[in-house]
TrEMBL record:
Source domain of life: Bacteria
Keyword Transmembrane included in the entry's annotation: yes
Record keywords: Membrane, Transmembrane, Transmembrane helix
Pfam families attached to this UniProt entry: DUF502
Transmembrane helix recorded as keyword: yes
UniProt name for this protein: DUF502 domain-containing protein
InterPro entries named in the record: COV1-like
PANTHER family: COV-LIKE PROTEIN 1, PROTEIN LIKE COV 2
Spans traversing the lipid bilayer: 28-52, 72-93
Length: 223
């Protein structure tokens, strides 16, 4: 019972720390950092929308003299044009060569812009465009001998070099890491769980890997 005052004192100190000025400021900053990328994205979209709106407004005024319907028509047309532009850019970026060109431009210029990497990460996570590590199953010819190993892409390095983790059987917690070009990989359209079960099962169920549809090129893993 002699330790009771000490415990009460520690609790009081802990409560003072929780409600201290520095704790409040740090907590506020942490919350701001979490929502800041979303705020910036919305702000940039609003600027782009206003720019498109100003371009469309004169055309809309010629087509429709009614003020109320003119404003509505302009808004709808601006949104459609903006969505069309975004779709066209996304469609162009599906091309392998366009992706490589943009990647070089991004590494050289865009990543130097403050908060760009954070915004890019946020968009990728919310849109589902970015695959998480170990989500892409591959068969890797690590030694270029025709012997295929079951692996998981963990990262894309520079250009076409992929980092692949190849688990050992039956304990997938251990394994080897290979850095190989895309030409030595077969990207498979199969769930990681099925591939992992074949590893734990000492190769049992590997037929599912070879029956899976092969993906020609997948550049969305850990960009």
């Amino acid at each position: 019972m002699k330790n009771t005052p000490t415990i009460q004192k520690e609790v009081a100190i802990s409560q003072d720390t929780i409600w201290s000025k520095s704790f409040f400021i740090k907590t506020l900053l942490n919350g701001l950092l979490l929502i800041l990328p979303t705020i910036i994205i919305l702000f940039l979209l609003s600027l782009i929308f206003k720019f498109v709106f100003n371009l469309v407004a004169p055309i809309s005024a010629l087509l429709d003299k009614n003020a109320e319907s003119h404003a509505l028509f302009t808004n709808i047309l601006a949104v459609l044009i903006l969505l069309t532009l975004i779709f066209i850019i996304g469609f162009i970026m599906r091309d392998f060569r366009s992706k490589r060109s943009f990647k070089r431009f991004e590494n050289k210029y865009l990543l130097q812009i403050p908060l760009y990497s954070t915004l890019r990460e946020t968009i990728s996570q919310f849109s589902g465009l970015k695959k998480m590590p170990f989500s892409q199953v591959v068969l890797v010819d690590a030694y270029n001998t025709g012997v295929l190993l079951t692996g998981f892409v963990t990262e894309i390095i520079v250009g076409d070099i992929y980092t692949v983790f190849v688990p050992t059987a039956p304990n997938p917690m251990n394994g080897n890491i290979y850095h190989v070009p895309a030409s030595q990989l077969r990207f498979l359209d199969i769930e990681p769980e099925k591939a992992m079960r074949s590893i734990v099962g000492m190769g049992t169920g590997s037929s599912a890997l070879f029956a899976a549809k092969e993906i020609i090129q997948d550049k969305q893993v850990m960009n």
